[in-house]
Every structure is written in structure tokens, then in C-alpha cells.
Amino acid sequence: MKTMTNLKDAIRDIPDFPKKGIIFKDITTLLSRGDIFKQVVDQIADHFKSKKIDTVTGIESRGFIFGAPVAYKLDAGLVPIRKKGKLPYKTISATYSLEYGTDTLEMHEDAIQPGTKVLIVDDLLATGGTARATAELVEKAGGTIVGLAFVIELEFLKGRKNLNGYDIFSLIKY
Ligand code: AMP
Prior knowledge:
Layout: H1 2-9, E1 12-15, E2 23-26, H2 28-31, H3 34-48, E3 55-59, H4 62-73, E4 77-83, E5 91-97, E6 102-108, E7 117-125, H5 129-140, E8 144-153, E9 168-173
Parallel strand pairs: 3-4, 3-7, 7-8, 8-9
Antiparallel strand pairs: 1-2, 4-6, 5-6
The structure holds adenosine monophosphate.
């Protein structure tokens, strides 16, 4: 419980960013503290260390920050999931709904082989649309999703509903 309080203290709330009514969870205040950043990475890696993860997928862009050190700790590879048009090679894509319109995520078509055990990492779970689209990409490629890890979960947005059946791990809940 003490740990949770410390981690929460390291997140900065920015009201009305990027638009009115949103409370943006600023993780830069967490990242700038070596002890807290390490605690977050260690806790995610420890939670999944017995699961024999082959590949971590980091979701652009804050998912890269946490996904990379988690992959390193798990002796796993790292696969970037990027916004449309950023990846240089042939891609597969998944489109998901936003409040207004849609967004598309892409992954290199050869990044994940059938049977690969995958951990999906992002900084924050809100409605779950981003993570859901990433899960679709992994499964399209034939990967097996072992779990999803988030530093922050906004429980009131019920993102887990979008991710039924998966093992979801989050460190800081609001
Ligand atoms: P969602 O697809 O609704 O689960 O949104 C998750 C993505 O949007 C994550 O990649 C987050 O980085 C970002 N995001 C959504 N809401 C917030 C928030 N309140 N503060 C910071 N990032 C957010």
C-alpha cells in the first residue's frame, strides 16, 4: 500500500489537457525519478517473469518508454506498435474508434511469428481502444497474448470491458 501511494505521488495531473474536461496523467514526473521509474519497470517485469514472454509490444509512444526496459529485463524482444505511416516495411493494421472518428495502428507484418508469447505494454489504460487494436494486430500475426501491462489504469472508463479474457496488470488505479 505504501508503494502505491508513492507511485501515485509521482504522477502529475494536468487538467484540461489536451482538451477541456480531460485530466491528463503526466508521467514525466515519474520518469525523471530513477528510483520510481525502476520500481515501475521492476514490478511489471516481476509480475510476468515466470510466463516465458518472447516479445513485448510497446504502443507509440509512451508504451516504448516502459516496454523497452521491461523487454530487456524479461530477455524478450521488443516490437513497436506505431501510428499509421511511421513503419518503413510492410505492415498489418487495426483501426479503432475514438470519441470523434477513428485511428489506425500498424505493426510490421513479420514482427511476430505464430505461437510467439506476447506481453502488451502501454503507459495508461483508458477506454481500452488502443490496447484492443494492438491485441488484434498480435493475434492477426498468430501471436499468443500472455498479458497486458499498464502503469496507470483509469478504472472509471472500464477499459477492461474491451479486453475481456486477457490477464491485465496495472500498477496505479484511479
Ligand atoms: P484508450 O485507447 O482510451 O485506452 O487510451 C489509451 C491511450 O491514450 C494511451 O496510449 C494513453 O497514453 C492515452 N491516454 C488516454 N487518456 C489519457 C489520460 N487521461 N492521460 C494520459 N494519457 C491518456
